[in-house]
Amino acid sequence: MKNRITELFEIQYPIIQAGMIWCSGWELASAVSNAGGLGIIGSGSMYPEILREQIQKCKAATSKPFGVNVPLLYPDIDKHIAIIIEEGVKIVFTSAGNPKTWTKHLQQHGIKVVHVVSSSKFAKKVEDAGCDAVVCEGFEAGGHNGREETTTFVLIPQVRAATNLPLIAAGGIGTGKGMLAAMVLGAEGVQIGTRFVASVESSGHENFKNIILNAQEGDTMLSMKKVVPVRLVKNDFQKRIQEAEDKGASKEELEQILGRARAKKGMYEGDMNEGELEIGQIASFVKEIKPAAEIVNEIWSEFLEAKKNTAAL
Ligand code: NDP
After folding, report:
1. Alpha helix (H) residue ranges in the chain
2. Does ligand 1 have an atom closer than 6 angstroms to the CB of 82?
3. According to the model, what pLDDT value does residue 217 have?
4. Which protein residue's CA is at the shortest distance from atom 45 of ligand 1?
5. 290 shares its domain with 273
6. What per-residue confidence (pLDDT) applies to 311?
7. Could you tell me the CATH number of the domain that includes residue 115?
8. pTM of the predicted structure, to 2 decimals
9. What residue numbers bound the domain in which 67 lies?
10. What is the pLDDT of residue 248?
11. Which residues does the chain have with pLDDT short of 70?
């Protein structure tokens, strides 16, 4: 397919694998890129030298374009940016922060910059910051989420109306039919996280992958708005947070319950009761762990089939 997203990233299909902490290292990113999508290394859980090693391994594993996701709330952000530039990465997705901070600097080094937003108001800021494209991510998405709770279906057309930037939709998309729906609403590409967590190449713990396979509708919830809103699987930890929130707990009290490194404990080390398990609503639709290339091919053929079938509507 040729459109502004495939041309911007020089990829075959406008299917982008989301950068996800603890789950998307070089193995997943290179597998998605080799299959014709855009693979992204999730740097938010990596110490700077780990990120360098992951980029180098990704370069060795694919000659195709790949990107790095940089959550701007990461503590060692300037070191990450320096490594990304030194290692010659060509595409950066920034999130969870102000797009003005790093965009020009990265672009001066020949890097395409895309920023993730959860509202049309922020999408306008992304355009003002001079980014090359924007991702709009709706309420259904896993992990870090918007405060406004706008669903993907409501968000896409509004962001489309608010900006002329190439538009990627995210949140609740895991199939070719979902991809087509997003594109009918105005997106030119999709970013998919949850479905790729349940892939062979994802670095998420086996227990975490199995939680996805067994997830039912309603098994995730947006929590911790006072700290940083994240969609989590309802487990012992999430329920404790929920009870505290229901009683009106302060930001400080919630931070105390959260403690440190809970995301690693859950998604990487496999503690399904006490870990922070960040996953999207579409988990209830994912029933099998597959190689990333198979996932890309399946989404693409389902997209083509669904597109053909729309003529009969
Ligand atoms: P915490 O503060 O609870 O813990 C930090 C975790 O990140 C630890 O597991 C640590 O590994 C790892 N880490 C990697 N690089 C660094 C670094 N330079 N300094 C400190 N810790 C580092 O954070 P979270 O687990 O909630 O989040 C992990 C990272 O992802 C953070 O950098 C956060 O800013 C970022 N992030 C989190 C999101 C979320 O939804 N939770 C969303 C977007 C970004 P170790 O245990 O081996 O020390």
Report:
1. 4-9, 26-34, 48-61, 77-86, 103-108, 120-128, 152-162, 176-184, 194-197, 206-214, 236-246, 251-258, 262-263, 292-309
2. no
3. 98
4. 261
5. no
6. 87
7. 3.20.20.70
8. 0.96
9. 4-204+283-307
10. 96
11. none
